[in-house]
Amino acid sequence: MVLMQDTISANGANFSNYYLFRPDGHEDQLGPNSIVETYLTKQDGIIAFKHLSGKWWTKVKKRKPS
């Protein structure tokens, strides 16, 4: 695994120091909702998915109690 240190912006969230995974056969995915990339960090686990359509799912961060 290679730690990526650039910054990605998706759905108003920014993340860096992440790992990027592409599922086996990702180049054969046809459906627009197929997940072609998964992003995770050591501290938060899975933080985002990128769909073939280009849409993102991002994990909602919990708010700190005030």
Briefly say what this structure is.
The chain is mainly β and 66 residues long. It has one domain (4-58). It is 0% helix and 50% strand.
Count of helical stretches: 0
Helix content range: under 10%
**Amino- and carboxy-terminal Cα gap:** 37 Å
SSE class: mainly beta
Number of strands: 5
Low-confidence stretches: none
Largest sheet data = 5 strands, antiparallel
What is the beta-strand fraction?
over 45%
H/E series: EEEEE
Number of domains: 1
Give the integer mean of the pLDDT values: 85
The strand line-up of the biggest sheet is 1-2-3-4-5
Q: Assign an overall shape.
A: globular
Please give the radius of gyration in angstroms.
13 Å
Summarize the topology.
Layout lengths: L3 E7 L2 E9 L13 E7 L3 E7 L4 E3 L8
Antiparallel strand pairs: 1-2, 2-3, 3-4, 4-5
